[in-house]
Amino acid sequence: MNRFWRLPVGDYWRQTRRRSSLAEVEDSIPLRVLVLALVILGTVATDIASETTFSFWAVPLSIVGAIWSHYRRRNANIPVKFCIAIGMLVALGAFFGRFIGEWNDTRLSLAELLIQLQVLHSYDTPRRKDLGYSIVIGLILLGVAATLSQTMVFAPVLLLFLGVALPTLVLDYRSRLGLKPSKKEKIVKKNSSSFNFKFLVVNFLVILGLGLGIFAVLPRVPGYQLRSFPVSAPIELKGPFTGRNINNPGYVRQGNSQGNGSGTGEGRNGEAGKIDNNFYYGFNSQMNQNLRGEMKPKVVMRVRSQAEGFWRVLAFDRYTGKGWEISRNERVTTLKQLPWSYKISLDLPIIRTPTKEVVQTYNVVSDLPNLIPTLSYPKEMYFPGPVIAVDTEGGLRSPVQLSEGMTYTVLSEVPYRDRTLLGKASTKYPRSIKNYYLQIPPEISDKVRQKTEEILANYNRERVSRTEDTRTLNSAYEKALYLAQYLKQNYSVPENPFGLPYLEKKDDLVESFLFKNQGGYPDHFSTVLTVMLRSIGIPARLVAGFAPGEFNPFTGMYVVRNTDAYAMTEVYFPKYGWFSFDPIPNHPLIPPSIEEDRTFSVLRQFWNWVAGWLPSPVTGLLNNVFGTIFSWFVRAIAWFLALFSQGWLGVFTGLIVGTTTAFLGWLGWVQWRKWLNLRWLKKLPPMESLYQQMLQWTAEKGLAKHPAQTPLEYAQVSYQQHPRETAQVIDEICQAYVSWRYGGHTPNWKQLQQRWQELNKTKSAR
């Protein structure tokens, strides 16, 4: 080994190693502290978003590593580096071990691996580029936390990270330039040129404002959304699963106070006639609509979906007179996971309606029944349980209750709602539909049918007399639409949840609603519409689920509460499937679905907030103007993108259109700037305007005036850069400008302007 050190090659290697290690050592303590702060913020953000505890061990170890690395920054630290390498290999092995069990959603496993590698790396950061690696790791951890975050708690950490990142980048840039603080700067911190706090604050506000502005106007096109299928940890199933029982914690069986039975609609603790204030009473095999009460609002789910929609839970086919039940509750089908993945495939009915694939991820925040919410027509499910059940009404059931922290993903083929096609749907229904979705208690059948036909006949007579139009409500779709609207406008919901009397044993809910109470509670409207449609031969059923909830534009998730649960009517159209109608007052007649355009959702919400402060006429006018502009803008973008899917001719046409549009846009921008410049020059005093025109002309020739030059200095230099005739005119203009600006003289600017124009004409002629 000693011989090696005496060789020229060994001596060169030893000198090079020492020189490189000493030359690149980073001595700035503030930079090291700020980099450590960024790493800690990234770790804390991951903990907040994923509800983990990485910070309890990662933060102390990172602080110790940063201190150790600073004091040992000029040493080789070969043993420490060897131990770090071994530790990184162990962390990688542990990651692959976790990967096998959680391969369907590896974000948290990757974040944990990154934190472990950063902790090890913190013990060997002698150089500035090593600190640069740590900055990048902190930024990646913040990005991972952003994908995991479901609440606004992440926002303060993001703002704090931005506030720390700005001075970190300033110090990093100074380090790259080799700038070091002077002795005076080290003593007098307030006058240090390393930090201009006013500059940092202004930049922070500008970056924040630009970020929020871009976030608001950024189009949110579903086609550009990432497809990910997060699933929580696997569920261990104990015993066989038949799928026949529905476990709603809000209901109890007789003699069972644990709240895990199917129940019959009695409230918690056997309190008859009252709704449990935490759980929706309709999520059960039976729905007793004779219950009264209201729920205490609480968040139950957060949903990330490519489209807004009604999170469907289950449907009922048999009307009992005071509620609903699933008549074929015993006829369920169980579906198992694929042995190598979380995927469960579901059969889709054959329908002619065009559909759109929508990916939804459900994050359960509060305990729910073992009923699985989805958009309509799910085709694939990534679920933590080994098996699920499907009932005859399309409802999905889990082997266990949906508990807090559960995550699953669903792919649905949601049909488009084409009013023209549905209006032409046949009224020849298959026997399987007639047998179950036209059932009405015979005691009220005739009375409800007569009332329904009377409502429809009145509409037809009023339309003919008012518009002299002979068209009437002939299609099932138009009848369902009108009856839902009629119930909204002619019946009311009592303000008091206990305002209506309980139904007696012989009373019927629909009959009491239509002929006695002139209204009822929200779900009663849907029951009445369903029975009215059945009375005139249109198959319908009651469907229960959750409204979309409140959309949070910052997290991109729908916040769903227990109070968002309600029931509405589903109507069957042969060859097109089931479509929903909502007769509840203050609800949209057609529930939101894939037809809702959320491309500019954040901008729309901001406008709604602004519109709340404006008078109604102004709001209406602006809505019409901007609505027309945005509709044309969206159509133009859709048409342009569609060109590229029409073969080579479409691609060629798209390129020509894009190039032409870009050229015209550039030309328009140039002319706009020229107009602004002319407008600015006209507002200036004549002598100032002539001087600025001269400076602009010389700048176009590539001989612009330096900001540090005075007008007279520039005039002297112009003799070296321009022909003598031109330089003389420039000199005269500069002399006149100085005498006018600083001497208070009034020059003959018209004569100077005439000479300048003649000079320009001469130059142009040449």
UniProtKB/TrEMBL annotation:
Ranges that cross the membrane: 29-48, 54-71, 78-100, 131-148, 153-171, 199-218, 621-642, 648-669
Domain of life, per lineage: Bacteria
Keywords: Membrane, Transmembrane, Transmembrane helix
Ranges of Gly residues composition bias in the record: 258-267
Short name of one Pfam family: Transglut_core
Annotated region described as Disordered, given as residue ranges: 248-269
UniProt keyword Hydrolase, yes or no: no
Entry keyword Cytoplasm: no
Segments forming domain Transglutaminase-like: 514-585
InterPro entries: Bact_TGase-like (IPR052901), Papain-like_cys_pep_sf (IPR038765), TgpA-like_C (IPR025403), TgpA_N (IPR021878), Transglutaminase-like (IPR002931)
Protein name, UniProt field: DUF3488 domain-containing protein
